[in-house]
Automatic annotation (TrEMBL):
Domain RNA polymerase sigma factor 70 region 4 type: residue ranges: 101-152
Positions of the RNA polymerase sigma-70 region domain: 14-78
Family statement: Belongs to the sigma-70 factor family. ECF subfamily.
Domain of life: Bacteria
Keyword vocabulary terms for this entry: DNA-binding, Sigma factor, Transcription, Transcription regulation
Pfam families from the UniProt entry: Sigma70_r2, Sigma70_r4_2
UniProt cross-references to InterPro entries, sorted A to Z: RNA_pol_sigma-70-like, RNA_pol_sigma70_ECF_CS, RNA_pol_sigma70_r2, RNA_pol_sigma70_r4_t2, RNA_pol_sigma_r2, RNA_pol_sigma_r3/r4-like, WH-like_DNA-bd_sf
A biological process from GO: response to stress
GO molecular function: DNA binding; sigma factor activity
Protein name as it appears in the record: RNA polymerase sigma factor
Amino acid sequence: MAVTVEEFEQFYAQAVARLVGQLYVMLGDLQEAQDVVQEAFVRGWSRRHQLDRDARPEAWIRTVAWRLAVSRWRFRRRSAEAWKRSGAGTHVEGPGPEQVMLVAALSGLPAQQRRTMTLHYVCDLTVEQIAGETGQSTSTVKTHLARGRLALADRMPDPRVQEDHDA
C-alpha cells in the first residue's frame, strides 16, 4: 500500500530528527547529516507513492542519505586528487589591501554600477563588450561608468596623488 501525502508528512515529522541523529553519528558532521537527510527526504517525497508503509520507509531514507554522503566523499576525494595531479597549489593568497579597499568601495555602489565598473576596470572589457554581455546600451554603460567613477572618487584615494605627496 502506497504512502499518502499526509502519511509522508507525518512520517517526516516523526523521523527527521532521529535520522539526522543517526547520520550524525555515522558521519561525524552535523551539517552534512542534515544535508543528506534532507536530500533523501526530497527524493523520498518524489517517490512517496512507491514507498510502502510496511517496507520500512525510514530504512529507505537512511540508506539513501548514507549513499548521498558516500557519493559526496568520493566527489571531494576525486576533486582533491585532481588538484594534486594538476600540480595546483592548495594555498591561495588572500586579497591584498588594495583589493580589500576596492571591494569595500564598490560595495557601496548600486549593483549594475558595481558590475559595470568591475567588467571595465578589473576584466578589461570595452564599453561595447560590456553592453553585449549585460544587454545594456552603450550609453547606459557609459553612464554607469561615469557615475561609478564619481562615487568612487570620494571613497578611494588616487594613488597618483599619494605618490606626488611622497615625492
